[in-house]
Amino acid sequence: MGYPDQRFDVNLSILFTELPLLERPAAAAAAGFTAVELWWPWIETPTPPQADLDALKKALDDAGTHLVGLNFYAGQLPGPDRGALSVPGEESDRFRANIEVAADFAASVGCTALNALYGNRVEGADPQVQDALALENLVLAARAADRVGAILLVEALNKPESPRYPLVSAPAAIEVVDRVNAATGLGNAKFLLDLYHLSMNGEDLSQVIKAYAAKTGHVQIADNPGRGAPGTGSLPLERLLDELKDAGYTGRVGLEYKPGDRPSAEAFDWLPETARADR
Predict the structure, then answer these.
(1) 3-state secondary structure of 211
(2) Count of H-run helices and E-run strands, the chain
(3) Which of the following is catalytic: 155, 203, 238, 243?
(4) How far is CA 72 from CA 39, 137, 171, 202, 205, in A?
(5) Residue 63: what pLDDT?
């Protein structure tokens, strides 16, 4: 057990960001990783030119890296936004315009997990109206994901850093997962269990793992405090990942942490090189 027994991937939207997007897959491969994930890379547009999509696919292929997770369009992320699907008006429209684009790109690179960030509460908007819109859009996203053989992920964030995001506990995200699955009958909506966010919310991580491992489709980690690499904070990440495995989770663990003031390539000294490649 322990870190060498896990299947890791690197989030190229928070690591290797000192490099242009198209150079990051090769940098991850040079560090020993073969699986990567991304937030939606084109924050200005839900519908980038096909040439941009093709260039990213080529960069992934040339590096020998497999994209295993992709966010749908989520607004300005990183930045003030935390998703678009529950935000009435233009942002909801942009999310909808992105659904088939993201699903088709995922299919083209063999990516089987699509993450749909819920979106912030908006001043002047009725939360019930936002939740109804969210369910409508998540159903569309779940069906598109199912069309390409992917799961739909719903993520809980943390309240200190995302005070207007309504899903700031594991139970809140699970409730949405269950609602989407009930509406579609597909069963492909899953929980994205991010140990950093849940720890920031003060949740009992071992209890969350026991309760929700069976509904978890992806796991992400960073240490706390600081959102740095494992070992830079006080979270018992190695033990928690073992608990997840014992609870039946067999998926990948996304490395979604900040490298600190050093190059990203130097931020993996906690993980033996022999344990970095996907398997």
Answers:
(1) helix
(2) 8, 8
(3) 155
(4) 7, 11, 22, 27, 27
(5) 98
Q: Is the peptide bond before 4 cis (omega within 30 degrees of 0)?
A: no
pLDDT at 1: 79
Q: Give the distance from CA 188 to its chain's centroid.
A: 15
Integer angstrom CA distances of residue 91 from 42, 63, 100: 14, 33, 16
Distance CA 62, CA 242 (A): 33
Closest CA to 175 of 124, 137, 134: 134
Distances (CA, A) of 274 to 4, 61, 156, 245, 270: 8, 22, 31, 19, 12
Distances (CA, A) of 27 to 50, 149, 204, 279: 24, 28, 35, 19
Query: What distance in Å separates the CA atoms of residue 111 and residue 69, rounded to the nearest whole number?
Result: 6
Tell me, yes or no, if 123 is annotated catalytic. no
Q: Hey, which residues does 219 pair with through a beta bridge?
A: 193, 253
What is the phi/psi pair of residue 22, to 5°? -75, -10
User: Annotated catalytic residue: which of 91, 238, 243, 256?
Assistant: 256
* Residue 119 contacts residue 152 (beta carbons within 8 Å): no
Q: How far apart are CA 64 and CA 195, in angstroms?
A: 28
pLDDT block averages, 10 residues each, the chain of length 279: 94 98 98 98 98 99 98 97 98 98 98 98 98 98 99 98 98 98 98 98 98 98 98 98 98 98 97 95
Q: What CA–CA distance (Å, rounded) separates 19 from 114?
A: 24
Alpha-helical segments (H) within the chain: 24-30, 50-63, 90-109, 127-147, 170-184, 195-200, 205-212, 237-246
Q: Is 175 a catalytic residue?
A: no
